[in-house]
C-alpha cells in the first residue's frame, strides 16, 4: 500500500512540456535467456564485484571460459542492474557484448530510450530507495516484476541525450573533486602512520638525559607483574580453603622471556625492547552467543563485532543484538580504559587495537575481541595503543597471522603476547603521547572536513540526477519530437510483436 502511494504521488508531479509519464515496464524490455558461459568462451564476464556502487564504473572483468554457473547474455547498450538489495546502486551500461552474473537484471537497449538515461535513472536516490524496500526469495533481491510499474519520466529522445551529456559533464567535474579529496585522505593516512612511526622510534620529541632509563621502568613493571600473579594465586588457594605452608608455590611463576633482538631495529639511548607479554598480566577473551542480525537497541544487550575495533576508535554501534533473556557475564562487559584488540580480521586489520573511552555496560566482548590487562600501573595504555599500531608491530602481526585467505586471518594469544614493544622512559612516554594526540587531533579535524565534503559530493551527485529527471537540468527544445509520440510507437511495435508471436504459435500448433 505504501509503495502504491509513492507511485501515485510521483505520477501526479508535473513534467515539462514534451515529456510524459510511463512505467519501467512500459518503456523497457528485460527479455533475456540464461546461457552457459562455456558456450561463449571468448566473451568477457562481469560479476557483481566488477561494478563499483554509485559511480557506475567497471572495475574489471574475467573471461567467460573461467565461469561455471549460468549467466546472462548482454549486448552493447544494454543496462546491467544489480538486483541484490545491499547493492541496488550497482548499475553499468557496457559498450561491448558479453556475459554477466544472473544477479543482474539486463535491461535491453530499445530504440526509443537512451540507455545511459535509463542507467542514471536506476541510480537515482528515489528509485534506489524504492527498490531497497523490496525483496523476494531467501535472499534480499528484487525482480523486474516488482519494478515494472514504477513511474518513469520519459523525455524526448533528443533531450534524453542532452541530459546524459550534461550529467556526464557535471559528474566529470564532481569526480575530479572527489578524487582530490580522496588524495587528501590518503595523505592524511600516510601522515598519521608517519607520526606513529616517528613516535615509536624516538624521533617525535627530543630525549631528556635526566629521564630515568626505561630499563629501570621495565624492572619495576616485571616486579609488579610477579606480585600481581602471586596475589592472584594466593587468592585462588584461599578460595579453595588451602593455606600454603611455604613459598615453594611461587616457583611456578614463569618469568616472560625478553624479545629476540636479532631482527629488531635499534632504539634511542635510554629505551629498551620488551614483549607485550612482559607488560601485561593476562589477556581476557570474550564469548559470542547466538545474536540477531541487527544492532542492539537502547536497553538491549549486544556483542561487539570486529568492526568495532577496526577503524582507529572504538565504535559501540558496531554490535549485534543478543536475544531476549541472555544476560552477559559482568566480567565480559566493556568498560572505560579497556585496551581491546581483534584476534580475527582481514590481513590489514587483524590485531587492530582501540582504547575505550567510556563504560558500555550493555556491550560484551565477542570471541574475536580480546582485552589486554596491563601488568602495572606504570604501563601506559595510551603508549601501548600507539606502539601496537606502529609499523614494527603491524608488520609482526601480519607475518604471524594464520589463515589461507586475506579476508580472514587469525592471531593466537601467544602470538599477540610475543609482539615486540619499544619502551621509552616513562617521562618521555608522556611527552610523546601529548605530541601524538596534538598532531592526530589536527588530522582528525581535517579528516572530518574531508569526509563532510565527500558526503556533500554524493548529495550533489543525487541532486544532479533529481534535477535531470524533473526536466530542470537542461532547457527544453520545442522542436524535439514529444515523448508521447515515442511512447505511442513503442506500444504499436509491441502490439505488432505480440500479434506476430501469436501467429507463429498458431502455425506451430497447426503443424503438430
Oligomer: single chain
How large is the share of residues in beta strands?
15-25%
Q: Terminal Cα separation, in Å?
A: 46 Å
Structural class: alpha+beta
Q: Give the % helix.
A: 40-55%
Q: What is the rounded Rg? A: 31 Å
Q: How many strands in all?
A: 23
Shape estimate: elongated
Q: Biggest sheet: strands side by side, in what order?
A: 2-5-8-3-4
Sheet bearing the most strands, described?
Answer: 5 strands, mixed
The number of helical runs is 13
Taking pLDDT < 50 over at least 5 consecutive residues as the criterion, the unreliable ranges are 1-7, 503-510
Salient structural properties:
512 residues, alpha+beta, five-stranded mixed sheet, four-stranded antiparallel sheet, 23 strands, 16% strand, disordered C terminus
Amino acid at each position: 500500500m505504501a509503495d502504491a502511494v509513492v507511485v501515485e504521488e510521483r505520477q501526479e508531479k508535473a513534467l515539462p512540456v514534451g515529456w510524459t509519464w510511463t512505467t519501467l515496464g512500459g518503456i523497457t524490455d528485460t527479455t533475456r535467456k540464461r546461457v552457459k558461459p562455456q558456450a561463449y568462451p571468448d566473451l568477457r564476464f562481469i560479476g557483481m564485484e566488477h561494478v563499483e556502487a554509485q559511480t557506475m564504473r567497471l572495475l574489471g572483468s574475467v573471461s567467460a571460459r573461467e565461469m561455471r554457473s549460468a549467466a546472462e547474455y548482454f549486448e552493447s547498450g544494454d543496462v546491467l542492474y544489480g538486483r541484490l538489495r545491499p547493492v541496488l546502486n550497482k548499475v553499468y551500461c557496457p559498450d561491448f557484448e558479453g556475459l554477466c552474473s544472473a544477479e543482474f537484471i539486463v535491461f535491453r537497449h530499445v530504440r526509443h530510450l537512451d540507455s545511459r538515461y535509463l542507467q542514471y535513472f536506476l541510480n537515482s536516490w528515489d528509485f534506489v530507495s524504492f527498490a531497497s524496500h523490496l525483496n523476494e526469495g531467501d535472499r534480499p533481491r528484487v525482480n523486474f516484476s516488482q519494478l515494472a510499474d514504477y513511474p518513469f519520466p520519459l523525455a524526448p529522445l533528443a533531450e534524453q541525450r542532452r541530459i546524459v551529456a550534461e550529467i556526464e559533464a557535471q559528474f566529470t567535474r564532481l569526480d575530479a573533486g572527489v578524487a582530490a579529496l580522496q588524495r587528501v585522505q590518503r595523505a592524511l593516512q600516510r601522515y598519521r602512520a608517519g607520526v606513529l612511526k616517528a613516535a615509536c622510534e624516538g624521533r617525535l620529541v627530543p630525549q631528556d638525559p635526566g629521564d630515568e632509563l626505561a630499563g629501570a621502568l621495565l624492572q619495576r613493571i616485571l616486579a609488579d607483574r610477579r606480585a600481581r600473579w602471586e596475589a592472584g594465586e594466593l587468592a585462588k588457594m584461599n578460595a579453595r580453603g588451602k593455606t600454603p605452608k611455604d613459598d615453594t608455590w611461587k616457583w611456578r611463576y614463569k618469568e616472560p622471556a625478553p624479545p629476540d633482538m636479532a631482527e629488531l631495529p635499534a632504539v634511542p639511548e635510554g629505551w629498551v625492547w620488551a614483549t607485550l607479554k612482559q607488560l601485561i598480566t593476562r589477556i581476557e577473551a570474550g564469548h559470542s552467543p547466538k545474536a540477531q542480525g541487527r544492532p542492539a537497541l537502547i536497553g538491549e544487550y549486544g556483542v561487539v563485532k570486529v568492526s568495532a575495533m577496526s577503524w582507529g576508535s572504538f565504535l559501540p554501534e558496531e554490535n549485534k543484538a543478543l536475544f531476549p533473556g541472555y544476560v552477559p557475564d559482568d566480567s565480559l562487559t566493556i568498560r572505560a580504559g579497556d585496551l581491546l584488540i581483534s584476534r580475527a580480521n582481514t590481513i590489514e586489520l587483524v590485531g587492530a587495537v582501540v582504547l575505550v573511552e567510556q563504560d558500555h555496560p550493555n556491550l560484551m566482548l565477542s570471541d574475536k575481541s580480546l582485552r589486554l590487562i596491563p601488568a602495572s600501573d606504570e604501563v601506559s595504555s595510551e603508549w601501548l595503543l600507539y606502539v601496537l599500531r606502529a609499523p614494527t608491530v603491524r608488520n609482526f602481526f601480519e607475518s604471524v597471522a594464520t589463515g589461507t585467505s586475506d579476508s580472514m586471518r587469525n592471531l593466537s594469544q601467544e602470538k599477540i603476547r610475543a609482539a615486540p614493544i619499544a619502551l621509552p622512559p616513562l617521562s618521555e612516554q608522556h611527552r610523546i603521547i601529548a605530541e601524538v594526540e596534538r598532531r592526530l587531533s589536527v588530522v582528525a579535524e581535517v579528516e572530518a572536513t574531508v569526509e563532510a565534503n565527500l558526503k556533500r559530493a554524493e548529495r550533489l551527485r543525487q541532486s544532479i540526477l533529481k534535477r535531470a529527471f524533473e526536466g530542470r537540468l537542461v532547457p527544453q527544445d520545442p522542436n524535439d519530437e514529444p515523448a508521447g509520440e515515442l511512447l505511442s510507437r513503442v506500444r504499436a511495435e509491441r502490439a505488432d510483436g505480440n500479434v506476430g508471436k501469436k501467429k507463429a504459435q498458431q502455425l506451430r500448433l497447426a503443424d503438430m
